[in-house]
Amino acid sequence: MTADQYLLNILVGQHVNNGPTSPVRSVQNVLLPALSTWGNGYLIAVHPSGSFAKGTANRSGTDIDLFLSVSENVPGTMKEIYDSLFNQMTQRGYTPKRQNVSVNVQVNGYSVDLVPGRRQNGYSNDHTLYRRKADTWTKTNVITHINQVANSGCTNEIRILKLWRNQKGLDFPSFYLELTAIAALSGRYGSLSQRVWTVFEYLRDRFPAARVIDPANTNNVISDDLTVQDRARISVAAKAALGASSWNQIVT
């Protein structure tokens, strides 16, 4: 079996149906009563986002991200909005977990990340999100994120890298990883295994010092989400991958 066949077999086994008939989409209807109560008349829209919408999800990862758009007129700070979502999910009998910009819940066996965002105005898709790790807010645009990644031509490489990240226990936020892979592969060609190898080389050599900017907001520095030590660990893990004698030592 060639390296490309090995990686393609992994991708087939990790396939996620993100089409309109995907069973995981049913969680949106299950959660809608609780989300409507939480929104208190200010909830504008609920739609899939994150890896599910971008086509970079794996079966062994989070099943779906739901972006919760609330009106610019909703009262309270973004922290209060985030905390109120966590409290609502607790009151509904879920066991929510606080993450950086999302609240995770388990629904009918699916892992669901709820991402609350306050619309900045009625003329664009720009939203304000709460960043719990930094205890601050940031402006971004999830539609821009989805389009940037889904149309990058790198979704298979990103899926392999996400599996590697998870299996090696690395702290590497998904959007940060996605933008890094896109940068590493810019203008580079080759087979799937060759392109994944190119990303590992980039992670080893250039990633620790690379500045990664949110394509929807140049003031939002994505690379600030990890410490120098975090980035160094990723670089060391990539160096180990490049030194492996077979692909099954890198990702399974």
What is the level-2 CATH architecture name of the largest domain?
2-Layer Sandwich
Rg: 19 Å
Number of domains: 2
- Report the CATH topology name of the largest domain: Beta Polymerase, domain 2
- Helix fraction bin: 40-55%
SSE order, one letter for each helix or strand = HHEHEHEEEEEHHHHEEH
Instruction: Sketch the major β-sheet.
Output: 7 strands, mixed
First CA to last CA: what distance? 14 Å
> Low-confidence parts, pLDDT < 50 over ≥5 residues?
none
Question: Strand pairing plus helix content: what structural class?
Answer: alpha+beta
Based on CA inertia axes, which overall geometry fits?
globular
What would you say this structure looks like, in words?
Helix 2 packs across helix 4, helix 6 packs across helix 7 and helix 8 crosses helix 9. The chain has 9 helices and 9 strands. It is 42% helix and 19% strand. The chain is α+β, with helices and mostly antiparallel strands and 252 residues long. A hairpin with a 2-residue loop joins strand 8 and strand 9. It folds into 2 domains: 114 residues, Orthogonal Bundle (Poly(a)-polymerase, middle domain), CATH 1.10.1410.30; 118 residues, Beta Polymerase, domain 2. The longest helix is centred in the last third of the chain and has 15 residues. Strands 1, 2, 3, 4, 5, 6 and 7 form a 7-stranded mixed beta sheet that branches. Strands 8-9 form a two-stranded antiparallel sheet. The chain starts with a helix and ends in a 10-residue tail after the last helix. It comes from Ruixingdingia sedimenti.
